[in-house]
Amino acid sequence: MLDFDGTLVPYASETRLIPEVDPRLPDLLERLVKRTGGATAIVSGRGVAEFDKLLGPIQLAISGAHGFEFRATPNSPIEFGLAGEDLNRIVEGLERLFALSSAWAEQHRGVYVERKSLTLVLQFHDALEVADLAYQFAFDTCKVMPDFALQAGRGVAEFRPVVADKGCGIGRLMARVPFSGRIPVFIGDDLADEAGFLIVNSLGGISIRVGPGESNAPYRLQDTREVLAFINSIAA
User: Fold this and answer.
1) Keywords on this record (predicted)?
2) Three-class SS of residue 21?
């Protein structure tokens, strides 16, 4: 199971809102899917549907929006963690969050807002000097919008529905064929992935952190290049 931004691809920037995907990545993932008998998945904060544009119709499972969305294959319907009025409330809340965050970002150079289906990200990779201000803004906003939680990361402050995190997404995957009964492996790079590391560790699996920083993952890869080389060695 693989995180996407910061793990498989470099983070987006203010000048490149869509992450740059290595043209070899789709083929690499296809080979990994075959090597694992289909037990390969993306676990991301991005919405599931975004990966049709980013990767094409690859036959792999995707847990998106921090476990709030799930799709087994490109032809499967997207399943949501909520439905009806509860889902509508989240969607309406995201509109309000987008307006508030966009207004705040306009006041700080190098900060921009990215929508990811049912989550929203305040990105400041290019303006780390405003990190404390950004986290405080996000924290204060969540206090008045209790349907959302702050997911702080390296250069990001992400708003996600309180009912979801990546640990939930991984747990959902592990309950399904072909993941059930296997030893889970999860590679991720930031604080949003720590919930995933915890559940993988509890299941006796292997969790791998990309880059520096304290982590619940006992293993380490240096950057996205090393991640792709590691995957290539498995998929060969």
Assistant:
1) Hydrolase, Magnesium, Metal-binding
2) coil
**Class of residue 14 by CB neighbours under 10 A (exposed 0-12, middle 13-18, buried 19+):** middle
The yes-or-no answer on residue 3 being catalytic is yes
Task: Measure the N-to-C terminal CA separation of the chain; round to a whole number of Å.
Answer: 17
Q: Which of 22, 20, 68 is nearest to 44 (CA)?
A: 68
130 pLDDT above the threshold of 80: yes
Q: How many CB atoms lie within 10 A of CB 38?
A: 16
Cα angle 3-226-176, degrees, rounded to a multiple of 5: 30
Same domain, residue pair 91 and 189: no
State pTM to two decimals. Answer: 0.79
Q: What single-letter amino acid sits at 231?
A: I
The pLDDT tens digits for 165-187 are 899 899 989 998 899 999 999 99
Instruction: Looking at the structure, tell me whether residues 39 and 70 fall in a common domain.
Output: yes
Q: Tokens 């399943």, residue?
A: 79
**Domain co-membership, 74 together with 189:** yes
